[in-house]
Structures are given as structure tokens and as C-alpha cells.
């Protein structure tokens, strides 16, 4: 483990852990459940990561499913996620992600204060009757799709590229953020809504704003392992965990004490993982540059001539290093996983080639198709 040093903060002495880059990467990879061991189930992954991103882009499979497959492996089935959300209520959907129910009591204080922007407050005030109409409709007839609910808005928001002229989805999202409605499940990609009191547990612990923020910061650090504190960007507080620095970096970081202690455990050598472009490990581009020396650019929104690796290429993690990009797509019409290219940042050793090929074969088997190499 890295050698700690002390740093005075007023009358408090904060121990600063000195880590090598290898140790830093190992902490992060383990925290993201991408080390040699596999997670046991959907809930375990969500509890550790804090969220599983939802995104419909499915060159291989939708984000929520590839994130879970990359942690659990061949035993993961999409129905397990649906069961955890819609039947067992161990996960809930909020702000484009599935989150563990254990986080809800830490989020509720902020949800009850929302919104803070004056423009949003004014829109909600002007549409108070509209909000009450929706809540009454859900109480009487829920769960419902947004398309089942009439638009009775008094004041409309102009379409912004993300939402159309129908005000119902906008109001539902706002009521979700206030903790008044909840998503009970989906029909395809369409969300079904109900009153929060009929979806969320009623026996949740209560926390003050300060307690909730502190505990949430600790949970976000648990998911990150090691991170630069930023309450808005990654949810890690400036006092979350313990202080750390990494060789060759000027960043002042926070490290999860349990992840730090786990450095004493044997290293199983890692494995190969293909990461969906919206995977949480890829979220902090600065940390990827600083600690993994990986400059990641999502090429989905680039013109085709400007793409180097492909429309939705998946970064290849080998152990604690990013070694290449997998450009592949599922062709259901022919039941094949078409591998357009495996881009190697540096030429692979024969053993590395075999590890990547084996993981591609595992991915195809999980999808129920064969592999077609271009």
C-alpha cells in the first residue's frame, strides 16, 4: 500500500495516502467490479456502482444490459433486471438510470428541495393545476403511460430537442424529481408511472440534508474507489473517505478506505472487459487521462469520415489498462455478432489476442449468436 503522510487542516491532521498509478488503477477497477472476480447478481452490481445507466443505443445491446453483462458474465439475463425493478422493488429508475433502493433515502432530502432554478419554479407554479390533474389521474387509474394522461398544462415549455410539445412527459419528470411520482416499469422503451407512495417503500430511514449529503458522498466514493471530489460532477464530497495523491499527478484525491485496505489482498491478475461507451468507468474523462493514460472520445456524434474506431466502439479493458477498441454490431437478421475491427493501441501479444477472442466468443454466446469477423 502507498505510504501515508500527514497534512494539517486547521486543528485536524488528515492522513494523505501516497499511491502508485498501478495501485490507483487497481482500486478503481475493483470498485467498478471489473477485476478478475465476477459479481453475483444485478442488485450487487447496482449497490456497488450506485447506478446502471439506461440508454437505447444498441449496436451490441442496450447500455443497462452490457453494463451488467460485463460485471456478471454469461449468467446474466435481461429478465433479472426487470424482476429487480418491477417485482422485487430492489432497484428504482431515476434520471435515466436504475439505482439501488438503498440510495433513495439519501436522495429524498434533495428531491424535496427541488427545483432550485427560479425558471423551473415559476413553470411549476403556473402549472399547479396541471400537476394536480396528473396526480389525480394516477391515483384513480395508475399505473399509466405518459400517452394515457391528458395534457392540461396552463403554460407550455417550447420544444428543446429532448422533449416535444406534449407537456405531460415534462411534468412527470419534474414530479419524479420531487419524489411525488415514480416509474414502476417499462413497456418497451416507454415508462409506466404511478404515485411514489405506491412504489417506494414506506419504512425508509429519514436523514437531514447534511447527513444525507455526507452519506451519499461516501457511497459515490465507494463506487469510484478513487476520485477528485466534486459534489456536482461525481457526487464525491471534499471530506468523503480519506485524502490521497498518486505518483506523477498533482491531483488531490479522495480514496475509499475499504478499497485502500483491499490493496493488501492478493491480485488475481484481472481480465478482459468490453465497456459500453456509457459505462460508469468511462464517465470521468479527466480521470481516464490522468490515471489510465487513456484519451477516450465517443465517436457516436462525429461525422463518419472523422471516426477513428467506429460509431459506437467499446473500449477494451485488460486488467487495469485500456488496450484497444472493439467495433462490433449485433445483426439479428443473420444471428451473428459482426466484428468490424479490433483496434489495438499497441500490438497484442499472442496471449492477449487469445483473451480478447475468448471474450468476444463469450459475448456472442450470451447474445445467442455466432461470431462473424470482417
Q: Which characteristics define this entry?
A:
single chain; 374 residues; 16 strands; Arc Repressor Mutant, subunit A; globular; five-stranded mixed β-sheet; alpha+beta; Crosslink repair DNA glycosylase YcaQ family protein; 12 helices; AlkZ-like
Radius of gyration computed on alpha carbons: 22 Å
- Secondary-structure element string: EEHHEHHEEHHHEHEEHEEEHEHEEEHE
Compute the number of helices.
Answer: 12
* Alpha carbon gap, first and last residue: 45 Å
Q: Class by helix and strand content?
A: alpha+beta
Report the β-strand fraction as a percent range: 15-25%
| Strand order, sheet with most strands | 1-2-10-11-9
Mean pLDDT: 94
Helix content class: 25-40%
- Counted beta strands: 16
Main beta-sheet annotation: 5 strands, mixed
Unreliable stretches (pLDDT < 50, length at least 5) are: none
- The outline comes out as globular
Pfam families: AlkZ-like
InterPro entries: AlkZ-like
Organism: Microbacterium aoyamense
Protein name: Crosslink repair DNA glycosylase YcaQ family protein
Topology readout:
Elements (H helix, E strand, L loop, with lengths): L3 E6 L2 E8 L1 H11 L10 H8 L2 E2 L9 H10 L5 H10 L3 E4 L2 E4 L3 H10 L4 H9 L1 H14 L2 E2 L22 H10 L3 E7 L2 E6 L13 H16 L1 E2 L14 E5 L6 E3 L1 H5 L10 E3 L10 H8 L21 E5 L2 E11 L4 E9 L5 H18 L2 E4 L1
Parallel strand pairs: 2-10, 15-16
Antiparallel strand pairs: 1-2, 3-5, 4-5, 6-8, 7-8, 9-11, 10-11, 12-13, 13-14, 14-15
